[in-house]
Amino acid sequence: ALISFFTNELKKAHHLIYITLTTGSSREYGRAVNVAKTFDNVTVYNSECLSSATGILVMIAAKLAEQGAPVDKIISELNDARSLIRCSFVIKNTDIMARRDRISPFMNNLLETLWLRPMLRMKNDKLGVGGFLFGNEQRCYEKYIDHAIPINVYPDTSFVFITYAGMSEEELVWIEKKLNERTKFEHIIFQKASAGISSNCGEGTFGILYIVKGNRNYNLGPIFAKVSADKADDFEEEYENEEDIQIPTETDLIRESAVYEEQTREPEWYDDIPGIDPEIAIKNSGSKEAFLSVLKIYYDTYDAKSAEIQKYYDEKDWENYTIKVHALKSSSRLVGAVDLGDAAAALEAAGNEKDVEFIEGHHAALMEGYLAIRSALDAQYGVGDDLPDIPSDVLRDAYGGLLEFAENMDYELAKMVVDSVKEYRLPSEDAERFKNIQICLSKLDWDGIKVLIHDIM
After folding, report:
1. Which of 4, 158, 167, 206 is the most exposed place for a label (fewest CB within 10 A)?
2. Cα angle, residue 352 at apex, residues 347 and 357 outer, rounded to 5°
């Protein structure tokens, strides 16, 4: 079929540039390269994109060709434009993925129970998991729009594609409204997804596909100037070979469930915590995810740790006091609380030297500084009044999932469950148990997790 296609197209052109789907999700590129070897004037180009994002590159190439640009110039421009294209999707539910054996029934049930929905995005020439969104359908869709167009990214506002599968007119109108609240696009093009995406991801899947502003204005807006705003009828359904589309597997869900990234980091809530340097914290912890995990534990253990330090100070048990301020020194430096860590180090040194006068003169300042950091974290980690109470079946399934993951020593899935429970208000006993589970998880203490859960199962 490709040989016939290339032959027919070359009757109308001196050279053909054939733009394919991403090699990470399709076999199209390899097939096209093999066929192109029989021609002297066919260039096969990997879009590193899917769906309407590939169409953006096609429009750019067509416009450059109309302007008489040579092949090497067009390819160079496509390389620049490719790095500016954003292509992502959100999946309403994972039932289709389970039926097609991309994920296990247990994983599907767990994601459904915990209201976790995968977000897919193109990265490194592959459609991978860009994170999990928590909440009901509309809440996840709103979160996805925020993730797809983060505040530090400036899209070309002349057009955006909304590529969707099995969504009603009312849903599309709602998406258009929410998208306009985020960014004003001149043309919002609603495009039915291909059979490949629809059959692999299911109804309710939609993606936001656009190009970021760069040094060059491709001026693609006029192409859509005559297109009506009737959404679903604007374009024909995309065509992509169903067998070609490689949707992430359960392994991908586990391995690639990192926080959604963009080229530059958005301002984070922890950037302005008094007493904490996040850059030092991330360096000391090894990653942003590790820092946030340790910071949460630092917050959760404040009551117990501060009570221990104060207890030994009141009892003048300087040996155990020194041990505890040593631990505070280490944990404070790990979360970037440099000044507090230095103050604890000074008290540790005084304890080793039996310098009681120094300890008595600086202990109160240490405790005040420790409390100040804990209080600064209340807004993020304190239990909010607006959190819903956790349903009993969700809590039961969370414990069941944690028990199974602890048996298999599966850190990523166990952490996913612990993080999802934070979206609810827990009974005090369960809240305390989850604090202890998180502490055990940070130490990879699987037996400790099993003991905590076996007590109630």
Report:
1. 4
2. 55
Distance CA 144, CA 119 (A): 7
Query: What is the model's pLDDT at position 236?
Result: 45
Note the pLDDT tens digit of each residue in 428-448: 888 888 888 877 876 678 999
96-121: average pLDDT: 73
Q: What is the pLDDT of residues 44-84, one digit of tens each?
A: 999 988 888 899 999 999 999 988 899 999 999 999 999 99
DSSP at 42:
E
Long-range CB contacts for residues 416-421, cutoff 8 Å, separation at least 24: 416/114, 416/116, 416/132, 416/257, 417/110, 417/114, 420/114, 420/115, 420/116, 420/132, 420/134, 421/114, 421/390, 421/395
414/257 Cα distance (integer angstroms): 12
pLDDT in tens, 118-146: 888 877 777 777 677 776 788 888 888 98
Residues 163-185 have pLDDT tens digits of 998 899 999 999 999 999 888 89
Token duo for residue 339: 């000044």
Angle formed at CA 238 by CA 233 and CA 244, multiple of 5 degrees: 160
- Are residues 247 and 102 in contact, defined by beta-carbon separation less than 8 angstroms? yes
Element at 105 (helix H, strand E): helix 105-113
Chain-centroid distance, C-alpha 305:
33
CB contact at 8 A, 116 and 92: no
Dump pLDDT digits (tens) for 330-384.
899 989 999 999 999 999 999 999 999 999 999 999 999 998 898 888 777 765 5
Q: Are 204 and 137 in contact (CB under 8 A)?
A: yes
- CB-based contact 164:205 (threshold 8 Å): yes
3-state secondary structure of 155: strand
E-strand spans in 114-226? 116-123, 126-134, 160-164, 188-192, 206-211
3-class SS letters over 369-403:
HHHHHHHHCHHHHCCCCCCCECCHHHHHHHHHHHH
- Span 106-123, average pLDDT: 74
Write out the H or E segment, with its range, that includes residue 295.
helix 288-300
Structure tokens at 193: 């997804």
